Amino acid sequence: MHGIAATPYPADRTFSAWRCYVLEAKHEFLRLLRTPMFCIPTLVFPAMFYLLFGVMLNRGNAAGALTPAVYFLASYGVFGVMAPGLFGFGVSVALDRDQGWLTLRRALPLPPGAYLVAKLAMAMLFAALVFVLLATIAVTVAGVRLPAPTWALLFVVEVCGVLPFCAIGLFVGSVVGGQAAPALINLIYLPMSFLSGLWIPLLVLPAILRDAAPLWPAYHLGQLAYAAVGQPAVGSVVVHVAALAAVTLFFLALARRRLARAA
Known about the structure:
It is built from eleven helices and no strands. It is mainly α.
């Protein structure tokens, strides 16, 4: 009809979908960055432990690939990147379920995977921040000097290593409520870190605990991090990668089944 303008139709719907993913990830990151109970422990605790153990124990040692500063850079890096996956997924998903946010999102015109992709991007961004913070302390305070490829490999291992803990956190968040989630995540996070040898070397622990260490995904990620900085890993790198992939797929399947049931 003359005089009536046609309603414009988006020419590139793919661009619109990607914009939704980007904005969703940005808002999720800012949401948790502005949540002191999440961002302060996530960023401060690994740095504090590294200063207390990695830096203090490194005094009197020459810079090199096997000093305490480098060893604990790898182990406390793994300890640090676990938190965004476990707490960023576990607690926030549980709270969103309690508040009915997941039900509301089904009625919104958003890509179906935007919610999980945003949380995954958030976890990886926080993992990258943890790595940068620890690396800065290692270089400026502990005098760590590593080749650029070693830094790059350690970065990839630790940032990508957040994936299995995102899957575990997603499953916990799909099972328990928002009030119980922080306590349950801590019951998983802290014992797993200790029993995987991230706080103290496994050689110090009793034999029964050393033998059980491969049951924990943090152990496998820790071995990959040690291998990245030149510390010989216990076992095959392929086995460690396969174990982490299996944990990720297993808990994703459990969480998907649980969330589909709750729908």
